[in-house]
TrEMBL record, chain A:
Residue ranges that the Swiss-Prot or TrEMBL entry lists as coiled coil: none
Keyword Signal included in the entry's annotation: yes
Keywords per UniProt: Cell membrane, Lipoprotein, Membrane, Palmitate, Signal
Domain of life, source organism: Bacteria
Compositionally biased region (Low complexity): 26-36
Protein name: ABC transporter, solute-binding protein
Region (Disordered): 26-45
Signal sequence coordinates: 1-21
InterPro entries attached to this UniProt entry: Bact_solute-bd_prot1 (IPR050490), SBP (IPR006059)
Automatic annotation (TrEMBL), chain B:
Protein name per Swiss-Prot or TrEMBL: ABC transporter, permease protein
Organism: Ruminococcus albus 8
Topological type in the membrane: Multi-pass membrane protein
Compartments where found: Cell membrane
Entries under InterPro entries matching the protein: ABC_transporter_permease (IPR051393), MetI-like (IPR000515), MetI-like_sf (IPR035906)
A Pfam family annotated for this UniProt entry: BPD_transp_1
Record bears the keyword Secreted: no
Amino acid sequence: MNKKRIISAMLACVVSMSAAAALSGCDSSSEGSSGKSAKKSEDGKAVLEVLTHRTDRVDDGSLDEMTKAFEEENNCDVQYVAYQDYTGTIATRMGTDDYGDVLMIPDDVELKDLGNFFEPLGTYDEMSATYRWADRKMDADKNVYGIAYGGNAVGVLYNKKVWSDAGITDLPKTPDEFLADLQLIADKTDAIPYYTQYADASWTITQWQSLVLSATGDPEYENKLLTDKLDLFAEDGGYYPVYKLMFDLFSTPSVIEEDHMTTEWESSKVWMGEGKIGTMMMGSWAIAQFREQAENPDDIGYMPVPITAADGKQYAETAPDYCVGVSKHADNKELAKKYVEWFTGESGFAEKEGMIPAKKDSALPDNLSEFENAEFFEKAATPEELVGKFNEIDTKSGVGVYNGDTDNFKIKLAEAAFAGKGEDEFKAIIAAENEKWAAARDEILG
Amino acid sequence: MKTKNGRNVGFGQWLRTYEGQKLYVSILFLLIPLALLVLFTFVPAVNMVGYSFQERDQFGVDPKFVGFENYKTIFTNPDYFITFKNSLYYLAGSFVQQIVALLVASILCSKIRAKGFFKGVLFFPYLMNGVAVSIIFLRFFTKGNPPLTQEGTLNSVLALFGAEPVRWFDPANTFLVNCCLVFVSIWRYIGFDIIMYIGAIQSISPDLYEASNLDGANPFQQFRYIVFPSIKPIVSLQLILAVKGAISVFEIPYIITGGNYGSSTFVIKTIETAFKKKQVGLACAMAVVLLVIIIVVTLIQKYFFREGDDKPAKSTKKEAA
């Protein structure tokens, strides 16, 4: 009797544990079948597993459609796996050896660690001749591990029809012209000239930060902030004009919507398409999404940053989206490299998305047609001794130039502007940020 | 080893007895949940206290010991300290909430029709998900953006009476913003208080009412001298819980305003500090402060509960003596 009880208790334990094991076991084996064990599909073709963040293009099948040409040419089977929370999921998968054959390189991987996870695609000297942004995923030995699948230019999203209805023929070149044009739209049309999308302030307000380098036109500006110990908000720098423009714009109730807290992001795409919204500050990644929702996609335009640099020219920074890399554990590395080359080049994916293709000889997307007077440039690489220092100072000081948390200076500026607090408040806020930044910089750089 | 009957047996044999089995089966069953609890609750909590004395980022790359620097920041930096001020709004709101709840509970305990229906209606918001409540009130307080969006519910109703639409979430008026949020919080949680009070009031012996009726007491006197003294422990318990609630407000402001417009609360700020500003050390210190406040409040609450339990026990002892 007693023995029976012991045995049954043991059995219960064993069963519950093995059930757990079996469940997880099932999981991994099914994972494996798509990844490791079945590297050849039924008809004997090589299988290439591609991990991507573009759930939209995988779900609507356009990526599969596009890849057919590549599959036929190389007699292989490309399988796409898309993750909604890409950086989060991929970090977990990269803890194992099985993270696909080709994947978007997450930015969490430090440059010096790239070689532990990815195959080098070539040296910087070779790659930079053909590709833009070749230095973005490069280790200290100048091996390039990833090529961007496309890039964005920095500018301002607007509805061409609204702007022309207001009688504006020339695009604004300075903040004053920009504000005057918005006022004109307010006077002459029914549209809301500028839509803040403040309900999602934590990310929409960070769009302003991307204008900073373009406002200076100086690829080295971020490095100079460190080496020359400039004030973060120096009046002749990049931060001051951008955030002054934001402050002035948000201080003018006639050109922005009335209630900022209840703005709607998804609807705003439709409204801009319908000509109810004139302008929004968004990266060029947004163009394709807004055009999809517009009655007449050609109405959605993209203009250069309305800030003229000190030398009298307008500039536009171009920056890459995710870079595509080949896993160090890929089975068929040659095929994977071929795929990367094809995907970033002739596939035409970037063109279709309205992004700047990575190949230097390819044409700019036509949504950048209004940038003819603006000069494109790429952010310069950070010198070795300063790598990571900018972010370190940024975190330490609590300034958070790319953040939109509720203590962030962008939120403080915006809310001071909404509340009509005026110029003095602006000066007080940026002075406080200058001080925080300088203190952290001096502590870290010595 | 001894069994219940006092027989001496070896350990192996003892294990096979009823007590022996009770012991090892309990251990086996407890092992997994305890391991999970230790691994996912106690170890992180202890680490958190350690981290709170450090300056560290989210990867924990070379953390630096800074002593009480993080705690100093919380209590001196106005960016962080203001969240305590915002908690006061919720604390003040909960006093209002208690008064209204007590009033409604008294009404519901008197002789009225459809008591059950009203109880259900009043309790319903408490059952709703906080996120849903927040989204409902986001619509409720909307000041429209003509021509894009219509006025929200409240402004539409006000318009029926010829009032001008009001901008409820006005960045220039953080007092109003916080009051709106406190109102939502009251609306959501008042049902729970009402039910608690009804329970307390109904436990009062009807004889007391009858006696007071014979003595000619009016309803107010009945409340003052019979109802209130009987439910005093519940009132104090509710007030203590209100302190706990006021410091840990999260979902309502987080969803409605995202903590903007000066409506940030302590928990929102903690999350932002950890995951947006990546100052994990400071965020841990904030979490520890919150933990300490909650523990203190819980201890006080336990103390009050014990008082309530002990008193009748003491009195019976006296009677027995």
